Here is the input.
Amino acid sequence: MQLNIGGFTSLSTIDYKDHLAAVIYTQGCNFNCPYCHNRSLLECKNRIIPQEQILFLLEKRKNFLDGVVITGGEPTIHHGLPELCHRIKLIGYDIKLDTNGSNPDMVRSLIEKNYVDYIALDIKAPWRKYKEIAGTAKFTAAVIKTLKLLTQTNISFELRTTVHSKLLSISDIREIIEKIISSLPAKPTFYLQMARKTDKFREKNQYTAADLKKLKEEFNNLNIKIR
Here is the structure.
């Protein structure tokens, strides 16, 4: 079963910690975040890259690369994701999955089959603001379920929130940390990442790294990082 691949990066040193990785970008997303920097993927405007072409390139580079990142868009909306992961694992790669958490059943299946090695889960906003930030509240309960799933397995994972002064206030970010991150039984790395301007979201971000550093210092018992 195929899935639509809308982009491919042959080498990244920043998308998968401690790995030289290729990055696969899937088309389509069930969220509509204002600051999305992959909107062409969300709107399925990219040229489709044949899956076999990607697998051929990965096979060819297996002695150089050691990881593959599958991102989007939102990869878990595609029924063909497990098959793709399986074929990549057969080549010998570690796999990192980026997800918005909207499909916990898919995430559970990938973990149980050992098709993924690391997961990055986006926490878009405090739960009460998901409709405003993600464009829908339909999947909020699913994201909570995915987060709970990650804490109950041995999978390595990180959490991350993209922040913009027009969308999330400092109190909103603090709420995420206090009510979501702090309540977890294990304390994963939590990334605060600055939203950048895009063609469709030109609002200037008033936050600085210093603003986020203050939050990090306030919660110095947690593993909060800024990027």
